[in-house]
Amino acid sequence: MDDLSQRARVRAGDADAFGWLFDEHAAAVHRYVVRVTGSFSAAEDVVSLTFLEAWRLRERVLPDGGSLRPWLLGIATNVMRNTGRAARRHTAALTRLPPARPVPDFADEVTQRLADAEELRAAHRALAALRPAEREVFTLCVWEGLDAAAAAEALGVAAGTVRARLSRARKRLRKLTDEELERGAAAAAGVQRPPAAGQVPGSRHQAARTGREGKR
After folding, report:
1. pLDDT for 37
2. How many CB atoms lie within 10 A of CB 75?
3. Minimum mean pLDDT among 15-19, 40-44, 120-124: which range?
């Protein structure tokens, strides 16, 4: 199905066109959400909500253009923002409840995914330290392979804004990755490293200052 006929049929609410749209892009949307959220289960929910929202917004599809993947990823981004706010409200409500009883450990049931999940958590920790706008641009442009124009379409911003955010995201992510590697090496060696975001007692800066004072 070519892009023009696809857009026209989606705009018209053609059920077969939406089935094709799901088959063609659901995996890409799922991959994008997993990379942003770090959660396979959350990704499944977001994919469902994304295509429900796409059906609701079908008349907003422009008649001309290329692939609808940027449009779908933009919807997924908004769904994640909304579900993230809902999750924070839910978490705040849970903190006001009495402690729950311990639950059994079902770790054996997820052994197959352990290696992938560990890698995903490591990547997600670094991405989580980015500002949300930078994280969205980095994921769309670097992991999903969208160009600046397509990412701008997905996020509803100018292409120049995408380029600026991507540049900042690359620089910050490089720095954060170096810090993660340093902390991981230190932990493996049994040395405690302070958080990178601030000064704490026993930090390298304080140790250096103490050393200088001892030489006076």
Report:
1. 85
2. 22
3. 120-124
